[in-house]
Amino acid sequence: MIAKPLADRIGVAAVAKRAGVSTATVSNTLNRPHMVSATTQARVFAAMEELDFVPNGSASALRRGRGALIGLVVPDIVNPFYAAIAKAVATHSRERGYVMALCVSDDDGDTELDHFRMLAEQRAAGAIVVPLHADTRRLDRLRLVGAHPVLIDRKWPVDDGCSVMIDDVEGGKLAVEHLLKGGAQRVGLVNGPHEIPQCADREAGAR
Q: Of 1, 13, 14, 85, which sees the most CB atoms within 10 A?
């Protein structure tokens, strides 16, 4: 099957005619569904299906000032921790009508910054970031375009940022308490370098 040229593709007017509604109703069904009754929405979607209509996501993004893109920026994808995060973000993004863009920084600051720029240029609706550096000013470009970045495993240095973190101090404490309650007399700690805040916090809690 040969794809139709752009000029010949079905537009909103054709969908409106098939559904027996105005073009404004078709637009509201796509962008402001709360303004359209369920019955009318069903007619519009049926017409879209019959005509093989594909909405113009770029045009919708321009009208809204943001797209339907959620960026996930992680240091690598081999680590099972980041792979699990990617799977969850992809699933929940799709369920809510968004598309996840997976951006892997490869532990390189310049690559990470390139990803931030790309997400800003695409007017991403949001960005979930495991940052390489504590300097969250690098994320200002995203915040300026309304991309609402959320940090994972890193706290914003100011209170107006959103982070999802584990209390590593409490985690280290609970782990050692569990061993001591089980009768352990000596406890060993296998940890990473203190330059990684989570490692330092785990040792503090363990001690």
A: 85
